Amino acid sequence: MMKYFSPFGTLAMFPSSFAEPQKDWPVNTFQIGFPLYADADSVISDKVSEFLKQGKAPIVFTLGTAVVEMKSDFFHIAYEAVKQTKVRAIFLIGDNSDHSTDEMSYDEHICISGYESYPLLFPECKAIVHQCGIGTTSQALYSGKQQILIPFAHDQPDNALRVKKLGCGVIVYAKQLSVEKLVKAINEIDSERKYSDNAAKYRSELLENDFEGKFMEAINKALNK
């Protein structure tokens, strides 16, 4: 299998605190941290910005960039759970209108948007409910907010388990998702301070990581071999 790896080096784009180096990794593997996407021109939409100002910090529900395009009851279940727990919520539904209903649209406790900048929005929210893709997961961890993890497939269950191990969230697997289980998860992260404390602590650790510096160091080592 080693012939499939570059002889110059391999970049592991996640920190060791998230996943420790393994014995079977290829030689010359450089672990440099999460490559966070941030658009300097991004802003939170006026609709969401106004919603944030109108009350307590909401919980944001998102399915990332891929799962959001699939047929799913995720947002319908989320809405019932939101009504039962009486929390404010932001639903990021992408371009899929099937995820919303007229009742959601007229509910003053809900704000529906297609997409918002994660780096700007997540820190303004109380908690993040997401599908555990690595991009969403890394942005959620950098926000320092507790999480409810709803993994669907691929790397998502593994990412969810790692966030849970860090003490930053609770897991409800997508195939087992129900209003009852989501209500329980919302109440748990809301009532147990350990999740918010652990999330804030881990954010501080991530902020100490010099991604750009480690990236350049890895490239220089590869070029100078």
Structural class: alpha/beta
Stretches with pLDDT under 50, minimum 5 residues: none
Mean pLDDT: 92
**How are the strands ordered across the major sheet?**
5-4-3-6-7-8
Relative helix content: 25-40%
Main β-sheet: number of strands, strand sense, barrel status?
6 strands, parallel
Shape type: elongated
List SSEs in N-to-C order: EEHEHEHEHEHEHEHHH
Strands, count: 8
Distance between the termini: 22 Å
Task: Count every helix, treating DSSP H or I runs of 4 or more residues as helices.
Answer: 9
Task: Give the percentage of residues in beta strands.
Answer: 5-15%
- Could you tell me the radius of gyration in angstroms? 19 Å
Description:
This protein has 225 residues and is of the alpha/beta class. Helices cover 40% and strands 13% of the residues. Strands 5-4-3-6-7-8 form a six-stranded parallel beta sheet, with helices on both faces. Helix 2 packs across helix 7 (179-191). The longest helix is centred in the C-terminal third of the chain and has 14 residues, at 194-207. The mean pLDDT is 92.
